[in-house]
Amino acid sequence: MAAQGYDFIIVGGGSSGCVLANRLSENEAVRVLLLEAGGRDTNPYIHMPVGFAKMTTGPLTWGLTTAPQKHAHNREIPYAQARVIGGGSSINAEVFTRGNPADYDRWAQEEGCEGWSFKDVQPYFLISEGNTILADADHGTDGPLGVSNIPDPQPVTRAFIQSCQQLGMPYNPDFNGQIQEGAGAYQTTTRNARRCSAAVGYLNPVKKRPNLTVKTGCLTLRILFEGDRATGVEYAEGDTVTTAMVDGEILVTSGAIGTPKLMMLSGIGPAAHLREHGIDVVHDLPGVGENLNDHFGIDIVAELKGPDSLDKYNKWHMAAWAGLQYALFRSGPVTSNVVEGGAFWYADKSQPIPDLQFHFLAGAGAEAGVPTVPSGSGITLNSYTVRPKSRGTVRLRSSKVEDTPIIDPNFLAEPDDLKTSVEGVKISRDIFNQPALQKYIKQEHFPGGSVKTQKDFEDYARQFGRTSYHPTCTCKMGIDEMAVVDPQLRVRGLQRIRICDSSVMPSLIGSNTNAATIMIGEKASDLVRGNY
User: Architecture of domain 151-185+296-385+418-464 in CATH?
Assistant: First the structure.
């Protein structure tokens, strides 16, 4: 099909891509094309907060699994990555946390990312945030990303927060405030009892701008180059292959798995690996696909004495009642994100900031790979090491775009990660054993009474740990030889191409990653406009 020309081509309609499409198309003289391989966000589960539990597998994901994890009993672990407009923000658990300010200061001061300290990025967090509850120096109230409190947390969630306090953690009403440590209910990326994804918050209000073209169901095949200069992209829409040419810049926002895959298919990456698959090398960039950093979450699950969790709504008549309540009044269990409560705490009390994060789910078996309980009524507590040292890779399986990449997060490769993770499981059990939750708990099923020794806990972590859906760092920002982009997000050694998503993080932040990915999109839009 004949080539079309644009000023900016954004490849990937996830969190950051939606931000860029909004901000760059503010200039009416600029022609912007946004390409997304997935479909539109028409699935009703996307917009109901509780729908998260239904979307960790299925048609809204790429259906990925990891390579066998040699430090986790050689398991191939399901690896949910969104395939829909809005990306992860359309299918995630909507937990709104930004990470610790020390994470961003580390990027700037230790990892060669000048301009990315917390004082540098905080304005972008604030401009993105539309908080309906909190309004102070730490929070924005007018941003496109709706943020609110869970309207009516489940009684077991309140008991979880009390149990954490009984264990010695302080109550924390705001994990994004001055102090991260403690336990409380998460704020969520919701507005008016509906999910506010990046597509809802950023893209939908502007998608009719005449200078913005949004194409879903379009798989980008490769980025085109003349010498070291990006000139356009080739993408498939059904059986039709189209070339789109760019006069300004190509902005790659396909995520920590999709971005390195696309770069390598386009001839940008480790030269030997590209030649192994018969791909012509445009630019030898050894860091592409390296440095994969993800949170390895480990669940414990308990059965309840009665129907005191969201599991009771698995029965058809209860589900019907909940659906009717939501349809009529925008209230009830459908307004829950399931992952209602959380905590930041210490495996190592000598650390200056928390090294563990906890997610409390008011149900059992809510996510793919998480066990349920005999009675069907349970609760789940997930914990992970927030700054894992283990690093993995994303590699091509072949030169065919339809083949999934080989994803190896290399979970638990570093002994410190295993040590901290095990402490997280032990603390999770201690939380379940406090009086506030013991009122509800009939029996702990996972790990169960047979897990007692340090080795038992280590084996349990290896056997039941899984991704927490936070892959990052595979096209890292920095100034060293493994950096893929510079602190302005420009791909090193190439012209007119930037990477503007979670893959550019030099290291993983100590929390959920979606708010930070949106921040990267906001800052990237300023970087791009400053040079245009």
Answer: 2-Layer Sandwich (3.30)
Segments of the chain assigned to CATH 3.30.410.40:
151-185+296-385+418-464
pTM: 0.96
Judge whether 35 and 233 are in contact, CB under 8 Å.
Answer: yes
246: pLDDT strictly greater than 60: yes
Burial class (CB in 10 A: 0-12, 13-18, 19+), 445: middle
Torsion sign across C-alpha atoms 103, 106, 108, 111: negative
Choosing from 71, 283, 359, 470, which is the catalytic residue? 470
Domain 1-147+191-220+232-294+392-411+469-476+500-532, architecture per CATH: 3-Layer(bba) Sandwich (3.50)
**CA-CA distances (angstroms) from residue 329 to 192, 321, 324?**
11, 12, 8
Cα–Cα distance for residue pair 437/443, rounded to 1 Å = 11
Contact between 211 and 31 under an 8 Å Cβ cutoff? The reply is yes
Catalytic status, residue 445: no
Q: Which residue has the tokens 């390296």?
A: 290
**Burial label, 455 (beta-carbon count in 10 A; 0-12, 13-18, 19+):** exposed
Looking from the CA of 329 toward its CB, the CA atoms found within 13 Å total 8
- Would you say 168 and 332 are in contact if contact means Cβ atoms under 8 Å apart? no
CATH 3.50.50.60-classified regions of the chain? 1-147+191-220+232-294+392-411+469-476+500-532
Chain segment 120-148, per-residue pLDDT in tens:
999 999 999 999 999 999 999 999 999 99
Helix (H) / strand (E) containing 328:
helix 316-329
